[in-house]
Amino acid sequence: MKIEEARRAIKELLPEKRYTHSLGVSETAGRLAEKYGAEPAKARLAGMLHDIVKYFSDERLEAMIRRRSDISDNYLNYSSKLWHAPCGAAYVQETYGIDDPEVLCAMTYHTTGKRNMTELDKIIFLADYIEPGRDFPGVEEVREAASRSLNEAVFLELQKTIVHLLDKRQKVYPDTMEAYNEMVGSF
Ligand code: DGI
Ligand code: FE
Ligand code: FE
């Protein structure tokens, strides 16, 4: 799938604000890929598509998780806000025949992160957090880190996300904790 087709596809499925966010993630991911030696075309495509099923109902996403043996059922024990990430990858595979495992993997883990992320996984995870439309406390610190070190920026994002979840007394998905544990102490 070409980037322009991907843009048209999400324009149909997403409200204006989320569409603009996705353009921002695509652009930011492309820049990060150029800087950190990943493939810019894959980064732009994964960034464009990453939230494609964000507005599907929880019921529809739950059905996809149950149907697809390659999506962990454990997602169902955690916030439904996590579900659109693995389901987005499954959806673009089924609907557009996207079979690039790197693109599918980066989409799958864009929300939670995981241990052993590839450069592309980290770039999509980070671009989602720092694209120009994002404005929340701490984002500037992560943007600055991203100009120095991909790993440092990803770690900061994990730390801030976990602190935020604990502060709201929410569960933390194990992949997010494992990503944090893997990187803690490196900086
Ligand atoms: O889809 P976006 O809004 O662009 O961003 P996202 O895919 O990173 O979704 C993040 C939401 O998921 C955010 O509101 C926090 C929430 N969330 C709930 N549980 C977890 C979690 N995020 C992570 N990383 N880990 C969790 O366990
Ligand atoms: Fe998302
Ligand atoms: Fe997003």
SSE map:
Layout: H1 3-13, H2 16-36, H3 40-49, H4 58-67, H5 84-96, H6 101-108, H7 119-130, H8 139-148, H9 150-167, H10 174-183
Helix pairs in contact: 1-3, 2-3, 2-7, 3-6, 3-7, 5-6, 6-7, 7-9, 8-9, 9-10
The structure holds 2'-deoxyguanosine-5'-diphosphate and fe (iii) ion (2 copies).
Descriptive notes:
- The protein has 187 residues and is an all-alpha fold.
- The protein has a single domain, classed as Hypothetical protein af1432.
- The protein is 66% helix and 0% strand.
- The chain has ten helices and no strands.
- The chain has helices at 3-13, 16-36, 40-49, 58-67, 84-96, 101-108, 119-130, 139-148, 150-167, 174-183.
- Helix 3 packs across helix 7 (119-130) and helix 9 (150-167) packs across helix 10.
- The structure holds 2'-deoxyguanosine-5'-diphosphate and fe (iii) ion (2 copies).
- The site of 2'-deoxyguanosine-5'-diphosphate (DGI) has 17 residues, from helix 9.
Provide a brief overview of the structure.
This protein has 187 residues and is mostly helical. It has helices at 3-13, 16-36, 40-49, 58-67, 84-96, 101-108, 119-130, 139-148, 150-167, 174-183.
